[in-house]
Amino acid sequence: NWTIEDFLERKVEEIREEVGDGKAILGLSGGVDSSVAAVLVHKAIGDRLINIFVDHGLLRLHEEKEVPMVFKDKLGLNLDVVRAKDRFLKRLQGVTDPEEKRKIIGEEFIRVFEEEAEKLGGRFLVQGTIYSDVIESAASGKETAKIKSHHNVGGLPERMNLKIIEPLRYLFKDEVRRLGELLGIPGEILYRHPFPGPGLGIRIIGEVTEDKLRILKEADAIFIELLKESGWYEKVWQAFAVLLDLKTVGVVGDERAYEYVIALRAVNSVEGMTADWSKLPYELLDEAARRICNRVKGAGRVVYDITSKPPATIEWE
Ligand code: XMP
């Protein structure tokens, strides 16, 4: 009859033994799994775990500041922040095809991570793989399911001769969260909605530009803030804004306006495989539309996505 406390104690011992006086690296995204893996391994080997946080510029509003604040300043992790926004935006210039965007972001991510890992050295690579990833991979017959390809630094372990450590491999998501609580990781990290590896790159339909990124980040933050204020954030599985590659006509004062359309998406789901669109109250949607159009320069119209999965996927690209 094991407890999460026993697990923690045992894992810390195991990791210490395995790593010895060596160094380990970990790609920290700020998502639940990599965060818990990072704090757990830090507890075992301290600063000999070097966490690499790649800021690809496609993160949610202020996330590039919040992640270092939580993990470096608050939890004391050894965190190496790589600011790579310009690199990613440059490679995404003129690209509109969703699969092409995903491929570019995934490739560039691995490239940046590899360059950084090479500089840092280290013999071990810590990954936040959890039990559902293991099952998913087995089911898909591939080493890693396609949907997770971005988070996995594919090919890197062999090329760099790194040994993989997966301390969460046999835990379910709720156990990972409990372990995270035990390790003192704040709730805003542990209970945050899932976020795709390619980030806002696949929530901007069409070409990704600085201006579109600003519009989407601001609109998304307003929607999420409203969900939190109203108690709906915890009631939906995932919610976010999407910026369409479409401008429509409106009126601002007495003037004609011609601005972008924002789509809001909120779904109820168990693991993301299927999903129902969330029946958010009309008043909440009304308030979201007003706030977004009033406060976000460049956003002129708001629509709500009422498609479930299937037939639609949760993300728009
Ligand atoms: P879809 O859009 O396929 O999304 O219905 C299902 C869930 O997976 C997330 N998602 C991703 N997660 N890398 C990720 O780590 C990706 O490339 C990716 N694409 C989709 C999506 O946010 C949803 O939670």
TrEMBL record:
<comment type="function">
    <text>Catalyzes the synthesis of GMP from XMP.</text>
</comment>
<dbReference type="GO" id="GO:0005524">
    <property type="term" value="F:ATP binding"/>
</dbReference>
<keyword id="KW-0547">Nucleotide-binding</keyword>
<keyword id="KW-0315">Glutamine amidotransferase</keyword>
<keyword id="KW-0067">ATP-binding</keyword>
<keyword id="KW-0658">Purine biosynthesis</keyword>
<comment type="pathway">
    <text>Purine metabolism; GMP biosynthesis; GMP from XMP (L-Gln route): step 1/1.</text>
</comment>
<keyword id="KW-0436">Ligase</keyword>
<feature type="binding site">
    <location>
        <begin position="29"/>
        <end position="35"/>
    </location>
    <ligand>
        <name>ATP</name>
    </ligand>
</feature>
<comment type="subunit">
    <text>Homodimer.</text>
</comment>
<protein>
    <recommendedName>
        <fullName>GMP synthase [glutamine-hydrolyzing]</fullName>
        <ecNumber>6.3.5.2</ecNumber>
    </recommendedName>
</protein>
<keyword id="KW-0332">GMP biosynthesis</keyword>
<dbReference type="GO" id="GO:0005829">
    <property type="term" value="C:cytosol"/>
</dbReference>
<dbReference type="GO" id="GO:0003921">
    <property type="term" value="F:GMP synthase activity"/>
</dbReference>
<feature type="domain" description="GMPS ATP-PPase">
    <location>
        <begin position="2"/>
        <end position="192"/>
    </location>
</feature>
